[in-house]
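STRUCTURE:
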């Protein structure tokens, strides 16, 4: 399955692009695929394609467009890692959330769309998925090894729709103290599901990466698909 590039109108003017994968049926709910720090690269497009194969309109918006449009980096290349961290350091989370809201609006307006929209994000996208749960009317949100959620736990009181977070317990970018803060804030919230993955490092679900673990990645992906199907298709 392949997708296409579409234009998304930004709420503050201008536009940016996104990669859209469409379900074979031509109808269904939507999922925003929220990028890592490497832009809309083959891995992110593959995730969108997989979601489309499971009956979702999947849209991966280019969130670095305010710095440079069309960023597509390879995490296996050192020079690309360095560029990725510069984009990450220059990224405005608040503007990113506004752009994701614009992407959500675009998904809801697609011909064949049911109006239900969730999101699934990785790394930086994992944080943004959490923030979409606290700052928008997204219908369901999934975050993989989000970086910086511990600094935003004061927003947890705003969660009104289901949220699932996958936590890598050996995450080099999210230490045990940060993980504990997330658990303290979210454990017991009936809208939130937290899954801990013992021994897993950051990006354990990215195929081809140094930390990739197929068994645990497949488990996380299966949990995510079941979660999104439950809350978006019923």
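SEQUENCE:
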């Amino acid at each position: 399955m392949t997708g296409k590039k579409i234009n998304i109108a930004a709420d503050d003017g201008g536009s940016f692009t996104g990669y859209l994968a469409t379900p074979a049926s031509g109808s269904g709910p939507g999922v925003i695929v929220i990028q890592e720090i490497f832009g809309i690269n083959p891995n992110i497009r593959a995730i969108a394609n997989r979601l489309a194969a499971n009956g979702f309109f999947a849209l991966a918006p280019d969130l670095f467009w305010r710095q440079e449009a069309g960023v597509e980096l390879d995490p296996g290349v050192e020079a690309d890692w360095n560029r990725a961290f510069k984009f990450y350091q220059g990224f405005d989370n608040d503007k990113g959330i506004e752009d994701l809201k614009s992407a959500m609006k675009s998904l809801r307006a697609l011909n064949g769309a049911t109006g239900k929209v969730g999101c699934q994000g990785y790394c930086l996208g994992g944080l943004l998925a959490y923030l979409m749960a606290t700052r928008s009317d997204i219908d369901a949100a999934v975050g993989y090894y989000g970086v910086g959620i511990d600094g935003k736990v004061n927003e947890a009181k705003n969660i009104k729709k289901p949220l699932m977070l996958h936590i890598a317990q050996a995450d080099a970018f999210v230490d045990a103290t940060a993980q504990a803060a997330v658990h303290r804030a979210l454990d017991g919230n009936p809208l939130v599901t937290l899954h801990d993955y013992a021994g897993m490092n950051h990006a354990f679900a990215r195929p081809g990466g140094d930390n990739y673990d197929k068994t645990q990645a497949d488990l996380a992906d299966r949990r995510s698909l079941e979660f999104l199907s439950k809350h978006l298709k019923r």
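REMARK: The beta strands are 4-9, 15-21, 28-34, 57-61, 113-122, 140-144, 163-168, 192-197.
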